[in-house]
Amino acid sequence: MNEFVLALAVNGLVWGLIIALIALGLSIIFGLLDVINMAHGDFFMLGTVGGLAIAVSTGSFWLALLIVPLIGLLLGAAIEWLVIRPTLRQASLTIVTTFGLSMIIQETVRATYGPQPRRMAAPIDGTIPLFGIDYDLYRIAAAIFSALCLAAFFLFLNRTKIGTWIRAVRHDPETATSLGIPVAQITAFTFALGTAMALLGGVIAAPITTVEFRTGIDILPFCFMAVIIGGLGNLQGTVAAAIMLAVLEGLVTSVVDPTTARIASLAFMSAVLLLRPHGLFSGATR
Amino acid sequence: MTAARARLICLIVFAAALLAVPHVLPAFGATFWVNIVAEILIWSLLAASVNLLLGFTGLLSFGQALYFGFGMYGVALSINNWDVGFLPALLIGIAAASAMALATGIFAVRLTWHYFAIITVVFSLIFYFAAMSTKWLTGGDDGMSFSPPPVLEIGDFSLTLADTTTQYYVILAVVAVAFAVKALIVNSPLGLSFKAVRENHRRAALIGINVFRTRLVAFVIAGALAGTSGALFAFFGRYASASYMFYHVSGEAVVWAVVGGSGALLGPLFGAGSLIIFREIASNFWENYLLAVGAITILVVMFAPRGIAGAWNDMLQALTTRSGHASDTVADTAPAVRNNALPEER
Q: Is residue B344 part of a domain?
């Protein structure tokens, strides 16, 4: 029994690392653009669908893992230019525009890819014994790869010129402009990067989830929970909260049903929103 | 002719057209459309609840489906368990939604903008999941059906919802009363304090308006409107289902409110009306009509942030001023959303 609980915790950790990647995309978009992106779950869904489509047509999952995030970058840049920038003046209404965007993405996928849910074969076969059960090797690989991507993201943000610019624009766009930082391009790039991270998370998750046009609807509330509990705009907090939430939900589901676990995390999130609106880790570095 | 008089004439024509619907449409062989218009009237109340918060109080709620759901279940549960009549069931539905709006509003209206939008979604999600998992009470996804009691029964005479025309007029009457109440509130001193809070909550607080209480009152009234909508929809469909509490229903209401014009009283009716009519026509031959709905939503926010009602008022204004008379009234449509509201709130 105890071992079964540990396996659930590991499962939560795997999901938590993937979700952290997606939620981080949501968090940088919010932090820089003040946009609540209701279409972020659908970006993730595009990643799963695109990953499956490319893996099937080229026969290589690893190629999909490379191509899909690049598509995400281009798509994000295009969407930022077409939809987000013109409505950025009315920051609150971007919730409405991204909701419209979400409808467009879902319907486009339903029209082209079809409404039926599909499953994707894992690119790494085999299982390893873990706490008494046979655990999919791919899930372990997915967790490690997600962790590497998270590390790469923070290295990029803290150690490169563009990363420094992103942090500067987040901190104070006006000063950044006066220092000669191309704020408009950095803003567009940040949105594109956030989109690409959601698509990347989608490809990684494609073999362990169902692939269909509705996949994003379930993932969106979870990403929001991670972003809120971690603190809106607090990137490390988002990662910590995503992992913590997924592990806790994994553990709680060993006692109660998943819906109750979800209700508990949502209630926890409301408490954080009301009592500590800057997140659970607001005392830590921002 | 002044713009105000032109607007009054348009309103009378519009009301007459709504009254004529069950007699005119069947004459053209479009009996089916009577129910569509009834459905538009019901959903426009849900859009009106978003409209009251967004357009008149400056709060964007993404969780009005919760109060819609409470209106539905108030009706379904009270009829199934206590065998009550039409009017008590309707009132129980509205009361349940208002009570829920009060209980959640006490927390929600402490936050604004992004935070308010998120916490309203979260509250609605909590109760959506709760309703989905308490199947014994709510029927979950499948919902629960009931047989609606007669609307009025005096001796042998009885009015029932089984007759499409009667059902239409009952819905029209309730919706008209709800819109009239909303108009009275918006034009009362209370409505002015809503607008004061929307424009600048610090100044509003300085002249003695209790900002928290004003927002809470607006939130409860909006909950009551959403509850009325849900109660009517339960009577209309003869069932209640937890699936109507999902955030997509709230999102749809926001889309209707914004497309219709979030600062105008009748905006929700235009928004829900045009998009539902579009759905009914387009879905016959185009499965993916939602693509167009998404595009329309984005284009309206970009190019006509005051929505259909805003464009209509501008047109009336232009037409009536061109005819030689200086207009004496300014259309009371408020700017859809203030650009400066966000930075100020943070």
A: no
